[in-house]
Automatic annotation (TrEMBL):
Residues 1-21 form the signal peptide. Belongs to the UPF0065 (bug) family. This is Tripartite tricarboxylate transporter substrate binding protein. Gene3D superfamilies: Bordetella uptake gene, domain 1, Periplasmic binding protein-like II. PANTHER family: BLR1237 PROTEIN (PTHR42928:SF5), TRICARBOXYLATE-BINDING PROTEIN (PTHR42928). Keywords: Signal. It comes from Variovorax beijingensis.
Amino acid sequence: MIKRYLLAAAFAALLMPAVHAQPKTTRIVVSFTSGGPVDAVARTLSEPLGKELGRTVIIDNKPGANGAIGAVDVMKSAPDGSTLWFTSVGAAAINSSLYEKLPYDMQRDFVPVSLVVNNVELLVAQQGNPARDAAEFVAATKKQAEPTPMGSSGTGSIPHLAIEQLADSSGAKLLHVPYKGAAPAITDLMGGQISGFFGDVPGLLGHLQGGRLKALGVASVKRHPSLPDVKTLEEQGIRGVDTNNWYALFAPAKTPPETVAAINKALRSTLADPAVREKLLKTGTEPVGSTPQELAAIQKRDTEKWAKLIRAKNIRAE
């Protein structure tokens, strides 16, 4: 009897670490280069999130293939909370419609953890453009013999889709000019090679504050807290431009629900920290947070919304 008891106790002791062990670090894979807006949000959150989780949070940049490289890295990782994927709406809700084949599937390979921030799109023009707002910009395009060139950060990007929505909803005569990223598009906008650009507020705020660009309208249901005097497109009579380049956190499939819940709680506590909120808002991004179920609903809704537009316009990744 004693021998049997000792064997059972020894077996239980062997199992204890596997059942109760928690990862000492959490690696957050960011599908974009260091120094970009998604990376900046991740690094703002890493230290306070680590304190909430009681472990070290490491940011690991895995850019490339429109987010697919980072996605594949995470989906092959252990589903124990030690590796998470931080990405924007593009890789999570747009890529499946842009590409015939993807090496990952959002429903099969990931579970939602939480929405993190919202980034609405802003229509901007160079300072010398006579249009004072989006309504005047649209009216001017209709008077031109040729379509007005508008740049985007790439085919199928949120800025590109915003251009398509603007053309459909307002009748504006627009020519889409894709760039490899927002930076070269903004440079050409300031140089006069293109006439307009949709971009995330965080990436444009410095140019607006420096007087290099002018804001014409916010593509959101409400005004942006960093730009309270800039009217929404809807306020200007332009309806149907509904863009939000949200960033969110996902975990590998089969991550236990209790692990997802613990990370979600820690993240939402981090986003509620006044110092963290102030830092994010100062850059022009809006901290939000959500339940895993709310993120799943948002991801499903936006996947369907953008798929419909992409099919209608026959847009394909280049």
